[in-house]
Amino acid sequence: MGGENRQGGLRLWRNARLVTMVEGAAGLGIVEKGAVAARDGLIVYAGAEADMPAPFGQGAETIDCEGRWITPGLIDCHTHLVYAGNRANEFEMRLAGATYEEVARAGGGIVSSVKSLRAASEDELVAQTLPRLDALIAEGVTTVEVKSGYGLDLDNEKKSLRAARRLDGERQVMIRTTCLAAHALPPEAKGDKDAFVDLVNETILPAVAAEKLADAVDGFCEGIAFSPEQVARVFDKAKALGLPVKLHADQLSNLHGAALAARYGALSADHLEYTDEEGAAAMAKAGTVATILPGAYYFIRETKKPPVDLFRRHGVKMAVATDSNPGTSPLTSLLLTMNMGATLFGLTVDECLAGITREAARALGMLDRTGTLEAGKSADLAIWDIERPAELVYRMGFNPLHARIWRGQ
């Protein structure tokens, strides 16, 4: 699918079936006998080939898709992709019956990843992260969100975010970075959560904002992490710095994190296994996306499912993401994530596919730029050797990607 562009960079994919994901279209917005035209990295036409304005077909480099399906490029809107080492030893301990507390006492948990990240150089972090990013890219992913949160001090949070920012220089992919300094307490905090929040607000976030290292700010609102009041302080600072917010909410208990996220107009609230109806209603009203993370649910053998029916009833938009991280979701397949979302949580095929395209873009505040096939959006496409879109959700461990198009190339 390579070759040089002709006629002002105009390129045309024809004889395709499109999953446009356009808002308001029925279902997946399917177009039989469709075409996509792109110029200078942007889609200029996506729709029925018969309705395409004649100029888009004149002198363009033309690719015959031979009836294949085209979706928007996939979007992984929640990852912790930059980390050092792994925590396979903890996995073995848990299989042998160790509890979360016993693993933590043995030096495991987030603190283990903090130790490893602090010991690694920025170059080492980039080198260790690229294979994980490559696994996502190989499945048609064109946009990835990457959180910090394993540095937990100024220098190492900045190092983590700089490493993430470098990834799109190494690969043809859009990287969005999120500062998750309020992820856990580092050992030197000696249990003083309020003092650590002071450090986040007075030192880490201002520096990260000044150096433009983050596109958003996240926090972990949970008994083992930070209280709603502490997270609210972080969010107040983020808003003062002009950064949008997201939240790890209601994963292990109901601290009303979803409602807190909604109160701050968060782009998304993520996990949400324990969210109640009040939280769902608040998210719907605020336009906060529910990001569903079945990898963590599966890996830590959680039993409480996120309230998908509540989200449907209230009209909450749902994204789906890998939560790729070393401790609770060492997952680098968005295709498998969709299957988990359908099998474990009862998401429909349409919800899964929207969740890794349109709604994932919404969860990153990027729906004006990507996530659907329509004029004006980035020409980020995935072309598939499948007979119907359901195959992308149905198969496990099989990658039917024919070609991944990044900015029209």
Structure characterization notes:
InterPro entries: Amidohydro_3, HutI, Metal-dep_hydrolase_composite, Metal_Hydrolase. Mean pLDDT is 95; it is low at 1-7. The protein starts with 9 loop residues before the first strand and ends with a strand. Helix 4 (122-137) packs across helix 5 and helix 6 packs parallel to helix 7 (228-240). The chain has helices at residues 88-95, 100-105, 110-119, 122-137, 154-170, 193-210, 228-240, 257-263, 277-286, 294-299, 308-314, 334-345, 349-355, 358-363, 391-394; strands spanning 10-19, 30-39, 42-48, 61-64, 69-72, 74-76, 141-147, 174-182, 216-221, 246-249, 268-271, 289-292, 318-320, 381-384, 401-405. An 8-stranded parallel β-sheet has the order 6-7-8-9-10-11-12-13. Strands 1, 2, 3, 4, 5, 14 and 15 form a 7-stranded mixed β-sheet that branches. Strand 10 (246-249), helix 8 (257-263) and strand 11 (268-271) form a beta-alpha-beta unit. It has 2 domains: 11-72 and 372-405, Urease, subunit C, domain 1 (Roll), CATH 2.30.40.10; 74-364, Alpha-Beta Barrel (TIM Barrel), CATH 3.20.20.140. The protein is built from 15 helices and 15 strands. By secondary structure, it is α/β, with parallel strands linked by helices.
